[in-house]
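Q: Got a minute? One more chain.
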Amino acid sequence: MYQKILQTNESFTRKMLDYQDLDPTSKYFGGIIDPIMGVALPSHGNTPKVMAAWVASIANPDSQFYQSEELNERLRKMSEYMLRQQHQDGTISLGSTNYHSPPDTGFVVVGLTQVYLLLNKQSSDMYNDVCANLKLFLERTVPALLTGGCHTPNHRWVLTAALSFLNQLFPNEELVSRAEEWLAEGLDFTEDGEWTERSNGIYNAVNNNMLYHAAQNLNRPELLEPVRRNLELMQYLVHPSGEVVTDYSGRQDFGVTSNLANYYFIYRLMAAHDKNPLFSYMADLAAESVTEPGSVDSNAMIGHLLYPDRMNNEGERQPIPNEYVKIINKQFPRSEYLSRVADVGHHLKILHSAPHTAFGSPIVRYRKKDTSATIMTNTPSFFSLRHGKVRLLGTKIATAFSPGIVYFDELKELNDGYVLSAVMEKGYNSPIPKPFLDELQSIDGNSIPWYLLPHQHRDVTHLQKHEITVTITPGKDVWKLHIKSDQLEEVFTQITFIFDQEGTFSGEGVKHVRNEQYFLTEGKAAYSVGNHSIEISPGSYDHWLDTLREDEHSAGCKHLSLNLMTPFDRVIEIKLK
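A: Always. Here it is, folded:
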């Protein structure tokens, strides 16, 4: 696997030579022009990412770029670019968003500190200018990280790791104290090892990497426990193809095809730390998906060169299971936590962030060799399935009641399956009592804008409730979805199966509406990719609406919808062929 990482880094180093801006009159001089955005950026996935790859090449005796004078000169220009892009307050800006951003600066600090430590270890004096520039850049970040805040849950651990690295270079008790302030908030993981953002494609690995560094630099081994649990959990979140389950993510990797490549760095480190054969196997599995060196903060080759003993992975391997049923967060007291929200006082309005109330929601993962399924709560899709090359990316129900997509928030285990349930409420607001209106003052003597009315004092009238349940019964060749509504009449409902674009639909009841939207009006529909297919039946076309209000179909996917009108009690079969 070392050779795979080496060749990946070598290839990336060669490729990115063509993207460095070498025009002395350009504002981006020395930086790397992003192939998609057309500008150079100082953030962790841009110029610093390339810097890490180039340093991993120039410092590696196994590299064709080892001690390359040309590459060293390019690195010097790059380090000067980073100093020019650094704001006076010590921060950098992400570029696509997040300006003067302490957490994005933190990502860069974690990466460039490791780059500096590796380059500073080299015996040659040729790297002195680059090292001096890197050290100056890092020293300038100290005030920002001593005072700077975060947006998202994972940013706290990024900042903690960055502070711990800065303390290695510039010992300062204030840096340690600030890291302890972040850690005092408590680590946000469930017993099964799930993080707040439920991001298997991106932020799990970020949290794991950052807390590993914090544990090492601050001598806090207890910080490795959530890392360990999450790495153990990930064995159940990989499809047979190596694709990672992103069907319920709370971040931008939601529904995006991802793999384990981001986990290579931490699996290698933790495999050696724990002498864990499962982690060793997962590191190998992750390496198979590596096509780029990784972000600046988790460059795989930097890890091999800077931590050769920690990255040693010569032990036994324990393959992940290919047959299991795993309920994640089965015992997590999510409802009890949510019941405390009113007492906190923020009413789920968190400035510049999101509350992530789906944290700890139960998930069922099912795998029988080449068939892999996920049953989900508190996410737009409640069911997804992989069968050979067939990828049923998600299944959603939308109604005109709320209106919009139904989020199932309860999961109950049966002897032969699972029941998902959702109770929706919708009422009407009474007039605001006069005493509260007497307090209002008009600016123009007439108007009182709607948004200034004290709506919280309205009573609710004619409150309506609408319940939908889905009973999912797994089977070797047939899965059954028993979908049932309550007796409320004339609620337009639509069930949509979301597929990737590789396959084709067939069946007499399949009606093509537009683009990649189809209806199953009756009978059966088959979706096929190569030698694999799944068959969905029976169809339904109780109304003619293409899409219900507040619902949108995902771009780049094929959609097969069934239209129902309440009350309904239907069993939909999904046959694997």
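A: DSSP finds 15 helices and 18 strands in the chain.
Q: Perfect, thanks.
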